[in-house]
């Protein structure tokens, strides 16, 4: 199974639509959004119409929290986790052949993500906010920032995690 990790889309409709079309063509099963969707209407008018799989997201620092909560509640495939989220492969997500249980945490801010990674409770921790793609290992945890899907201050990027091969790849949107 392949999971797409995005962050900081900041209402860039063109980039979000391009990413979602790629996600559908490349059999992405789940999307994790690490915050800064910005306008909650992006969920209703762009993401849900173009992607039918589960979408897990957290608040960023640019967000209408009340409206985002209300809109996300309208869709069964969208889960707003608050300021940080957690999903477990083998509990929340079915295991694929050859797969193993894994815990994934995600939030918006790098400081919080680093603390989650240092806790040793997770295999993977994802975050956003800086708009800079980054991958590092903290003990046995992979800590990663997929960059900015919105393309603000950096090229538009996202990450893909394959739960079977355990491979984490960074994708540059203009190259797909």
TrEMBL record:
Keyword terms, alphabetized: Metal-binding
Cofactor(s) this protein requires: a divalent metal cation
GO MF, one annotated term: metal ion binding
Name of a matching Pfam family: Metallophos_2
The enzyme's E.C. designation: 3.1.4.-
SUPFAM superfamilies according to UniProt: Metallo-dependent phosphatases
Residue ranges of domain Calcineurin-like phosphoesterase in the record: 1-165
Highest taxon of source: Bacteria
Entry keyword annotation includes ATP-binding: no
Entry's family note: Belongs to the metallophosphoesterase superfamily. YfcE family.
Protein known as: Phosphoesterase
Organism: Candidatus Buchananbacteria bacterium RIFCSPLOWO2_01_FULL_39_33
């Amino acid at each position: 199974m392949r999971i797409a990790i995005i962050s900081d889309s900041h209402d860039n409709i063109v980039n979000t639509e391009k990413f979602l079309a790629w996600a559908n063509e490349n059999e992405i099963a789940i999307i994790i959004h690490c915050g800064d969707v910005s306008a909650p209407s992006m969920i209703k008018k762009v993401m849900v119409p173009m992607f039918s799989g589960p979408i897990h997201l957290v608040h960023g620092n640019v967000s209408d929290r009340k409206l985002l909560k209300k809109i996300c509640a309208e869709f069964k495939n969208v889960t707003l986790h608050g300021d940080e989220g957690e999903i477990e492969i083998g509990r929340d997500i079915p295991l694929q052949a050859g797969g193993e249980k894994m815990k994934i945490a995600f939030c918006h801010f790098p400081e919080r993500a680093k603390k989650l990674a240092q806790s040793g409770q997770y295999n993977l921790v994802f975050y956003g906010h800086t708009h800079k793609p980054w991958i590092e290992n903290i003990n046995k945890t992979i800590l990663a920032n997929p960059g900015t899907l919105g393309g603000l201050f950096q090229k538009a990027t996202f990450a893909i995690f394959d739960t079977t091969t355990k491979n984490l790849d960074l994708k540059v949107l203009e190259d797909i």
